[in-house]
Amino acid sequence: MPLRSLWTPGMMTVGLLVASTAPVAAAGWPDTPLGRAGMLVAIQDMEIMLLTHSSATRALEEWCALHHMADPPVVVARKGTQSGPDAVPERVRADLAVGATQPVRHRQVQLVCGAHVLSVADNWYVPERLTAAMNTALEQTDVPFGRVVAPLDFTRQRLEFTRLWSPWPGDDAVSGAGHVIVPPAQIIRQRAILRDTHGQPFSEVVETYTNHILDFPPPVPPVR
Fold it and tell me: May I ask which residue range the UniProt record assigns to the signal sequence (predicted)?
């Protein structure tokens, strides 16, 4: 049974994501069968990286290092502009096992490595289930959520993992000048609950990975 999405019209993530990651050519990947197959393999590799890490921040830093996308390959959280308190979706409160009046905070960020906006994340978390130092860091710094709460040795319970676009067979893709692949803004989305070592949920995240995850030169085919 497919999982329902938390996205609602007017949600801030959509505007932030589209504004910063409009469709662009991904580092000159050629619009050929070989180029499309290579890009599909890259997306699959990214999916494996995400599925084998509890921390999306750590996964993105390994990805950025692997493809030499920044030096140093450090991910920072660029906060979005928000006005007024955030309404917490009822589904989030149910997933986090909190009552209607219990405080839940919302933090939205772009996860950036060098010049690459790799993902946009909406994060709802229960402040009383974190330490005072963690809450201060989340409110006052650009440190990614996963790095802040790393001392909790958390695990990730995935509720949704969706490939939003594929370059193969390419019927819905656009060729740019010079016949290169132009992927759309959104490539992968996952939704998950983060739990501490006692199994208590303390956060729900929705992460959308952008076309910038493909912003590195395509592999060079071996010479025969």
Answer: 1-27
pTM: 0.83
pLDDT, tens digit only, all 224 positions of the chain:
333 334 433 343 433 444 344 545 456 899 888 899 999 999 999 999 999 999 999 999 999 999 999 999 999 999 875 544 568 999 999 999 999 999 999 999 999 999 999 999 999 999 999 999 999 999 999 899 999 999 999 999 999 999 999 998 765 555 555 688 989 999 999 999 999 999 999 999 999 999 999 999 997 765 56
Taking the CA atoms of residue 2, residue 56, residue 41 and residue 221 in that order, the dihedral angle to the nearest 10 degrees is: 170
Neighbours of 55 (CB within 10 A): 17
Burial of residue 140, with CB atoms counted within 10 A of its CB: 0-12 exposed, 13-18 middle, 19 or more buried = exposed
* First CA to last CA distance, the chain: 47
Cα 158 from Cα 162, distance rounded (Å): 11
Q: Tell me which residue of 221, 219, 211 sits closest to 188, measured CA to CA.
A: 211
Fold classified for 12-81+88-214: Chorismate lyase (3.40.1410)
